[in-house]
Amino acid sequence: MASNSNTSEGGEEDKLLSLERLDRSSPDLWPEKIPGVTEYEVSQNLQSKNAGTPRWLADLEKDDINLLQEFGSLTLSQLMEKVRGLQNLAYQLGLEEAREMTRGKFLNILAKSKQQ
């Protein structure tokens, strides 16, 4: 009885099987929507493969890459904590800059000299 069901399933699968092959290389069957795009895409792919490293990665120094790897290994909560720390540091630096600018104003450091 089990062998009967297996052969009937195989027969149904054979009915659904298509031996048709579509040749996608034919420009008549698959025309380009915008002429020249295929050649441009191929040339861009070749350039990106030949470049080796991406352009954005080429400008990074070793310390920058290490920092990126460190950030990539953090969990979401650890990354959020790191961002909060950076925001707090930026705020503290802004306060310190404002203090120093006020100090420079009182000491008349930024005034233009009369000799010029």
From TrEMBL:
<dbReference type="InterPro" id="IPR018737">
    <property type="entry name" value="DREAM_LIN52"/>
</dbReference>
<comment type="similarity">
    <text>Belongs to the lin-52 family.</text>
</comment>
<protein>
    <submittedName>
        <fullName>Protein lin-52 homolog</fullName>
    </submittedName>
</protein>
<dbReference type="Pfam" id="PF10044">
    <property type="entry name" value="LIN52"/>
</dbReference>
<feature type="compositionally biased region" description="Basic and acidic residues">
    <location>
        <begin position="13"/>
        <end position="26"/>
    </location>
</feature>
<feature type="region of interest" description="Disordered">
    <location>
        <begin position="1"/>
        <end position="30"/>
    </location>
</feature>
